[in-house]
Amino acid sequence: MSICDSAAAARARNSPDAAQLETQCRSLGGNPNTVSSSLDDLALKGAEIALQDPLSAELRKRQPQGPYLRGFDIGMGASEGQTSWGPGKQAILNSLSGVEQEGFKIAISFVLDRNRFVDLARVGATIAETDPELAKARTSQADVRYWLGFDIATGIFGDPTQGAKGNTLPGPGSDKIQSSLSLPAQQGFAASRALHLSRHY
């Protein structure tokens, strides 16, 4: 991180080092408030993005208010359209307070999972809307990332007449998808796969 990034992060944590770092930042011609302003912009953007998708809107609604939610919104804004972790997101994470970091991580894990498999997730969610058994199983866990993993597996193992791929057995391809997901999404994926394979479409 740059001196100015470190200064903004220290100020956010109320660190005793903040004043010294801000002085160093200004001596280099920087503005220690720029990073904080950028984070506020990301938070506003992230909140708007989250509300555009039913799953992310539900996930956001379940986050604690205050710094945790701010971290979540920053994560949503920082990961728009992205499919992998990188140094930019790591720098943002490092600049946040501990509570904000936890919200940030939740948002990032959801967005990266969804963006990598957005088509499968969309098909799975659509199928669940018309199938009461699936809908109940899909939301049996409180973590919305579980629902996302469930939808992704439905897109793979669900009824092919409804747009799913209709895979009838697990394989290296679907196993690789499952292992790439966050832990809650992996659990939803496994539950969905077991349910669909028991139906024998």
**Annotation field: number of helices:** 12
Q: How many DSSP E strands?
A: 0
The residue fraction in helices comes out at over 70%
Report the structural category: mainly alpha
Shape, principal axes of CA atoms: elongated
Oligomeric category: single chain
Count of discrete structural domains: 2
Spans of at least 5 consecutive residues whose pLDDT stays below 50 are none
Report on this model:
The protein is mainly α. The protein has 12 helices and no strands. Helix 3 packs across helix 5 (67-78), helix 7 (98-116) packs parallel to helix 10 (144-157) and helix 8 packs across helix 10.
Brief account:
With 201 residues, the chain is mostly helical.
Write the layout of secondary structure elements.
Elements: H1 3-12, H2 18-27, H3 33-50, H4 54-61, H5 67-78, H6 87-95, H7 98-116, H8 118-129, H9 132-138, H10 144-157, H11 172-179, H12 183-199
Helix pairs in contact: 1-2, 1-3, 3-5, 4-10, 5-7, 7-10, 8-10, 10-12
Features:
201 residues; mainly alpha; 2 domains; elongated
